[in-house]
Amino acid sequence: MLHEGNHPSFDKLFLKTIIAITREPDCLPIRSEVPDGLRKRPLASPDQEFSLNCRKETPGERAFVAAMWFFFVIFLVDAAHSESLVQPLECRLQKLRTLMKDHQIQAYIVPSTDDHKTEFVPAPEKRREFISGFTGSTGNAVVTTTEALLWTDSRYYLQALRELPPSWKLVTMENSSSIDEWLQKNMKKGDAVAVDPKKMLAGTFKEYSSTLNNSGISFIAMEDNLIDRIWTDRPTYNEGNIFIHALEFAGEPYERKLQRLRKKMRDLKSDLLVAAKLDEIAWLLNLRGHDGEHTPTFVSYVVVRNRSATLYTDTNKVPPEVVDHLRKPGAEVEVSPYDNFWSDWKKDVQTHKKIFVPESANYQIYSRVPADKMIFKKSPLLDMKALKNPVEVSASRRAHIKDAVALCKLYYQMEREVPDGAHWDEIKATEILAFYRSQQKDNLGSSFPSIVAYGKNGASPHYIPTPETNLTIGTSAPVTLDTGGQYLDGTIDTTRVWHFGTPTPFQKQVYTALLQGVADLATTVFPQGSPAKLFDFVIRRPLLKLGLTFGHGTTHGTGLFLEVHEDYNGTFFENFIGSQEPGYYKRDDFGMRLENLVVVVPSAVQNDDNRDRLMTFSPLTLVPYESKLIDRELMDQSQVNWVNNYHNDVRKLVGDEMIKQRLHILYKWLIEKTNPI
């Protein structure tokens, strides 16, 4: 509401609004509805006084006119805001299509990732977001001469509908053709499709090439990225030097890791290997950085030879202590500028016999290697990194205890304030939790954008609150919090559902089914090396009994102060750290997800003949469940026992940390929250 006496006259406000809306933009939309003559016509100054030769208005007429202008101004301002979001995107499409025409390209693919298959790409690498406006972490764009399309999965469907401008079409991965199949059906013979080969995995590029070329469509590796040509105000990487990840957290010196890697190379008869994934490079060298979003990595390549290795990165971010760190006798790693990689790679390829190119490498790396020299397989670093050593497991346990304290602080505060009417919204909860995490030792921020979703927003699995979508948190619906912290000693990913009022019977039924699934999977005993996909049914079964299900996976790997979603070989083995996360999502109503990180450990029960070592899961996440959402009558005794035992562990381990931090009131609250159900 405008405050009387502090605002301009309605005449002046009206004129200022008209000027703001009709001012010629830097780049017009493809179709402009404003005639040229009108666009160029000069407007009066908003401060110019107008003299109208008409009768004096009555007070009632003035009030009516003022009210009409007020609502008209509100309408125009809202329209201007919407247009201000859409217009630059239309402008970018126009510029991209102009470049496509210049290069005789009929379709251009804009992947979501960067040169290194990074999950949360840094700001200067968000090309797909720049061209489409879609901010989700998963999704690829295709721009043709007449259409603009975005492929994403069900986790981001609602978000994409909100964010994409009208000129874009949403394609869901689950229910539609893949990009190469769509191009095959919709492009003509003789058309050309292009992509930056550094932004597409080698395997994906080869698949697209085969599909399109078989249909007479040219698939072109265009090293000149067209998005970069039009992105004139492209942001820069975060500031901050590369730093050493101490042995007390890493558990193994980098020189030993290099020694083990070279042993694997010899077994594969390879004398040259390139590492392109940033988390693999950081893990191998026991280094971390600040270039990544939510992940402490640094932009780089590493080339490993029989007796030497080179790290290609921004040398301005390599302090003397890191140079010294990489000079261990017998494992010296030379540091070279990032841009030197391509010329050096060409030389290395020429002078070595067998070259290991990992499947996680981009096509441009792959294309530089002759077929007779190529070894193209999963990176040996993938398994080396996923197999945590005992020091890493112990460190991760410490990190989860600290993070549980931060989450409990938020839980305690909101549980007391929300029912009393204190204002809490999704963004506020995100910010307060980030502050509580920052109070914990060795915290270095978040491991992914926090998901705090109240009521209907919870129906979108990967909802991220924004000022436009931010809801006030009340007592009539559940709130789902899927959040994580990055600590020197561990990476966190925890999801809990809280309710600050009275849950409905259906909400309790759903929550209890999710908890039953967590308990059933947590107590499963299995042979080491079992495929993770076999366990998906176990965690879904209680929900399926209700005729309900969900569209996302239930397990991912997790790094140690690295990627929260870490690649692994798809099997469960000792000291593997990963997630267990069932969920349910009811559109326009609510969503729920429960997630623990666990570590695979030997089971107390073993085979008599010791042929197949039996394993089970040990929880790392230690955050209480919401007792008011649990319907105990729906659970069997083994599930009840698991929840009670879990809460006993929370009470002991997290409670001890609270006492250590002198949080005695919080400790008393924790005792109440972990009472047997």
UniProtKB/TrEMBL annotation:
Annotated InterPro entries: Creatin/AminoP/Spt16_N, Creatinase/aminopeptidase-like, Creatinase_N, Pept_M24, Peptidase_M24_C, X-Pro_aminopeptidase_P
Top-level taxon: Eukaryota
Positions of the Peptidase M24 domain: 397-600
Molecular-function GO terms, alphabetical: aminopeptidase activity; metal ion binding
Gene3D superfamilies per UniProt: Creatinase/methionine aminopeptidase superfamily, Creatinase/prolidase N-terminal domain
GO cellular component: a single term: cytoplasm
ATP-binding recorded as keyword: no
Hydrolase in keyword set: yes
Occurrences of domain Creatinase N-terminal (ranges): 92-221
Protein name per Swiss-Prot or TrEMBL: Xaa-Pro aminopeptidase 1
Native source species: Apolygus lucorum (Small green plant bug)
Lineage: Eukaryota, Metazoa, Ecdysozoa, Arthropoda, Hexapoda
